[in-house]
Amino acid sequence: MHKMKIAVVGAGAMGSLFGALLAEAGSEVWLLDVWAEHIKVINEKGLSIEREGKTRSVEVEATTDPQRIGLADLIIVFVKSTQTAEAARVAKEMAGSGSLVLTLQNGMGNADVIAEVINPAQVVAGTTSHGATMMGPGIIRHAGAGPTVIGMWSGKDLAKARGIAQLFTHACIDTKVVENVREVIWDKLLVNVGINAITALTGIKNGQLLDLEVTKTLSRKAVEEALAVARAQGIALRDNTVEHVLKVAEATGPNRSSMGQDVDKRRRTEIGTINGVIVSEGRKLGLETPVNETLTALIETLQAHYK
User: Fold this and answer.
1) Measured in whole angstroms, how far is the alpha carbon of residue 55 from the centre of its chain?
2) Other residues' Cβ atoms within 10 Å of the Cβ of residue 55
3) What CATH number did the domain enclosing 170 receive?
4) DSSP 64
5) What is the tens place of the pLDDT at every residue in 275-307?
6) What is the pTM for the complete model shown?
7) What is the mean pLDDT of the chain?
8) Is residue 166 predicted with pLDDT exceeding 60?
């Protein structure tokens, strides 16, 4: 395998983590982000990663200017889903005809947005169970590791995706390739539907979702609505999805969901590509989604009135 040149568009907690792990494994990695202070610290001192009480520093190239990077073999989009369209345009500047563009973002619709700008045959999509939190400029916490699953967004030529999986696994990002990546993205979406908005609105941690019957019921109803939409679209999903969502909440008990962190920091959330997508897709199918509609409306109201 030749040495790959990788550009990470969006060097938040997750983008920084993946970039650092790939750089440690010997790839040429560039982190691209608009947050100048974060980029400056990385270039001066390296990226600090906290993991289970230990901190290490990783040297990785970082810039706010995509033109400094030039063409890349692999471009990983890790921005918030509200910025995907802009990130896709930036990715296009760095993508040659043989480049791949990978999204591991939360929510539904990111790959479609990217495929409007990039040749769909070059788009790879997936999900990851790694968790990371931004601690400050140049410092992230690697909160937890877990499997990453990817697949080609269009076309069945999995060889390219397998190349990425090999590269990632070599960099301690355990990655497998699937043929139907849409099902995997739906699976992750259902977890976010059941956890994110509820924890964001109430200020609780993921595990506290299980403390009260009334909270569990709310989560269950949101997930059941989403399942009905998925099935109407012909997406095959596990039967025990509601139990799976509650298990994930328990397993990530001490964590504050990404949407919760966004609300705490008064940032725009990804509600439109999570609960909001259940509402809009449900509408197209003539399905009522009152719980997701309510959760979406509350988050949209909350973020519109940030102080």
Assistant:
1) 24
2) 11
3) 3.40.50.720
4) S
5) 999 999 999 999 999 999 999 999 999 999 998
6) 0.93
7) 96
8) yes
Give the HSE-up count for residue 44: Cα atoms under 13 Å, Cβ half-sphere: 9
188 annotated active-site: yes
List the catalytic residue out of 5, 188, 216, 221. 188
- Region 254-271: what's the mean pLDDT? 94
Number of structural domains the chain divides into:
2
Contacts of 262 (CB under 8 A, 6+ apart): 80, 200, 268, 269, 270
Among candidate residues 128, 163, 179, the one where a domain is terminated: 179
The pLDDT > 70 percentage for the chain reads 99
145 CB-near residues (< 8 Å, 6+ apart): 129, 130, 172, 174
Predicted confidence band of residue 7 (pLDDT cuts 50, 70, 90):
very high
Domain that holds residue 289: 183-304
Residues whose CB falls within 8 Å of the CB of residue 231, separated by 6 or more in sequence, listed in order: 237
Residue 224 amino acid letter: E
Alpha helices in the chain (DSSP H): 13-24, 36-45, 66-69, 84-94, 110-115, 159-170, 181-202, 213-232, 241-251, 258-264, 275-285, 290-304
* CA terminus-to-terminus distance, the chain: 51
Q: Are both 88 and 212 inside the same structural domain? A: no
User: Mean pLDDT throughout 76-92?
Assistant: 97
3-state secondary structure of 73: strand
